[in-house]
Design brief:
four-stranded antiparallel beta sheet, about 15% strand, 4 strands, alpha+beta, single chain, about 50% helix
Length: about 140
């Protein structure tokens, strides 16, 4: 049981790291945007992620979208944690989720958007990077 908790915690930390790396490595016009603006959705399948990307592309409340398949996320995870072989050994590729990192439009109320995303994609995890940044900053 303890090992399972450690693996789940590691995956959540990895997801936050992957989200941050995704946004920081963007080479588009919004690459210098505040990381805290990012909202990330985690999907169990690449198909569900691709469908969400198609829906979100036309959303006026979203200005930037970065999508990553499960395989791409796993490859990034392996790079980020290359210096922690024990973590890599414990993490199964199927445990890593496909992701969509998005940036709300300038005048969009981020909490309203997060609430709408949670309603639209109820089976998925919606992570607000500002919550993570606030938790880290308040330690």
């Amino acid at each position: 049981m303890k090992l399972r908790v450690v693996v789940v915690a590691a995956i959540l930390v990895a997801a936050a790291a992957v989200t941050t790396v995704l946004i920081l490595n963007r080479d588009d016009a919004t690459a210098d945007a505040n990381v805290c603006r990012t909202i990330t959705l985690f999907f169990r399948t690449d198909e569900a992620m691709a469908k969400a990307v198609d829906q979100l592309r036309g959303d006026p409340d979203v200005t930037a979208i970065v999508a990553e398949t499960k395989q791409q996320a796993y490859e990034r995870f392996k790079k980020v944690y290359a210096d922690q072989p024990e973590l890599l050994e414990l993490t199964r590729p199927e445990a890593i989720r496909a992701t969509v990192a998005l940036e709300p439009a300038h005048n969009t109320n981020r909490q309203t958007l997060i609430d709408r995303l949670r309603q639209t994609y109820p089976a998925q995890e919606v992570q607000d990077s500002c919550e993570h940044v606030d938790r880290v900053g308040n330690r």
